[in-house]
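Problem statement: downstream parser choked on a complex file, so we are re-checking the raw output for the MRU run. The parser issue turned out to be on our end (a line-ending mismatch), but while we're here, posting the original submission so the record is complete.
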Amino acid sequence: MHNHCEHPYTNDSVRALQWTGTGLRVLDQRQLPSSVAYDDYDSASGVAEAIRSMRVRGAPAIGIAAAYGVVLAAKQRHYQSPNHWKESINQDIDLLAASRPTAVNLFWALDKMRQAIASIGDDPSPLLTLALAIHEDDIAANRRMGGLGAELLEGSTGVLTHCNTGSLATGGYGTALGVIRSAYSHGLRNIYACETRPWLQGARLTAWELDQDHIPAKLIADSAAAWLMQTGAVQWVIVGADHIAANGDAANKIGTYSHAVNARFHGVKFMVVAPTSTIDWNTNSGKAIQIEERERKELLSEYYHREDSVIDAWNPVFDVTPACLIDAIVTEKGVVLNPDADKMQRLNG
Ligand code: MRU
């Protein structure tokens, strides 16, 4: 089923999350690009499972989905117990919080919903207004970051991105891919995307969404990135983030750190694009960021899934790029060049 919306901005037609009026419609990202299928959710446990199973993925999209999950929980609990629903909703929020550990936006959105619950009466309807605002604000932040990031690219002819940071990973438009979208509309033409092993967010999702929006790009194997950089074809690596520490260290999809190391060696600049909802002011450095490890089956071919196989796998799905390898962090509140703890604090508040 094709369910794309038209938006006033060009080259931005995909939406992974849609509030239907009664529930949350989720584009199943596990099936892209071979099949475009949507699932409808009417409970917090359903939304938590959609996040855990990676039907929904990408830090901002996870946060937005969780906010809608709280709306659905409140609706259900209020129906069961109109005057006491607040007493039991914390278990739904805890279930949503346990869905994925690295995305700060998840905890940020759940905190916002928790605060709203504490401030309203027995009518839960203001929660939907808040979830819709979280969704809309994310798109607005992405458009702003798109403009700010594209300004930094002036004079550049080529960029490399990793993972999927586009409309599929956010409320819409995208973070790093939003910058690329914006730069494309200003004439940037050489866009390279890493396939992003093992889950192939680049090969399956970034390629699909750019194809939908008619933005030409070249896919490369992750292991071709250093070799691409030495050709001089790209001047910037542009990535998103799942968790940014107060000193600017940034956790993102596994492979990002090696791109940053390679970029510095080749004199290629490195940009992290993320809304301030991805910054965790309580974590001082990247060393304290919890890195999700997913099951060995995601990495091993089926032959090795058998019990008696001696082949195991180590499958961390994020890594941390230290602030000293980052040239610019682009947020909706402004750009921090050569980030450190002091400069990052200007974004706080
Ligand atoms: O495991 P995923 O696909 O949820 O990981 C997503 C990423 O690493 C993205 O780069 C990050 O969430 C930023 S998306 C705007």
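For whoever reads this later: The first strand starts at residue 17 and ends at 19.
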